[in-house]
Amino acid sequence: MPTALPTERPIQAPGTVDTSPISLTPATGDDLDPIWKAVVPETRTRGNDIHLPISLAYAERLCDAFPGADRQLVRVAIQLHDTGWGRVDEERILAEGFSGDWRKAEIRFEHERQGCVIAREVLPPLGYDDAFVHEVCAIIDGHDTRKEAYSLEDALVRDADRLWRFDHAGIALASGWFRMDPAVYSDRLEAEIIPELLTAPAVAMATATLNRSRALLKTAVIR
């Protein structure tokens, strides 16, 4: 169940903060495999089959840093948060969701609504109770469009959703969505996305990962 959101920014963590490459710590266990299998069609849109597993790995790291958070709520919410992209008009995703005032694009609200529909479809048959499904949907509904997090779990999902972008795989995908080269997109991550992160562990992970990605992609030279 949701944990009260601390007021400090960035939120300091009582647990261990791992800033090593995310490929070294993929998401653990097989308990979420039935959910993955239930949403395979929804993972084939907008790179979700790359974005969602990497985001889950980051979410588990954040839960390690915040052991008081509801780990299962964070894990399931991040796993399903962007599945709604699989049920909206794919041509509109890039046309509206990644151009202009993209944060306020109607298609972003639509993908949140569809994500909640999917959560309500797949979770109850797998044994998740109504209260848990409600909390998952409360995080999904607004993860892109609501200005503020309402709980610690919501904050961890939001940070995990952003952290994948700093990995070289995230830069490779997302720079194309925003029609930017990797160097310019990396600059945007530093200037715009790091300040949005809510927790100190996420800031540390983002900074370390971005430094590695810039070195790997030679963004100081290829720009």
Automatic annotation (TrEMBL):
<feature type="region of interest" description="Disordered">
    <location>
        <begin position="1"/>
        <end position="28"/>
    </location>
</feature>
<feature type="compositionally biased region" description="Polar residues">
    <location>
        <begin position="17"/>
        <end position="26"/>
    </location>
</feature>
<feature type="domain" description="HD">
    <location>
        <begin position="56"/>
        <end position="163"/>
    </location>
</feature>
<dbReference type="InterPro" id="IPR006674">
    <property type="entry name" value="HD_domain"/>
</dbReference>
<protein>
    <submittedName>
        <fullName>HD domain-containing protein</fullName>
    </submittedName>
</protein>
<dbReference type="Pfam" id="PF01966">
    <property type="entry name" value="HD"/>
</dbReference>
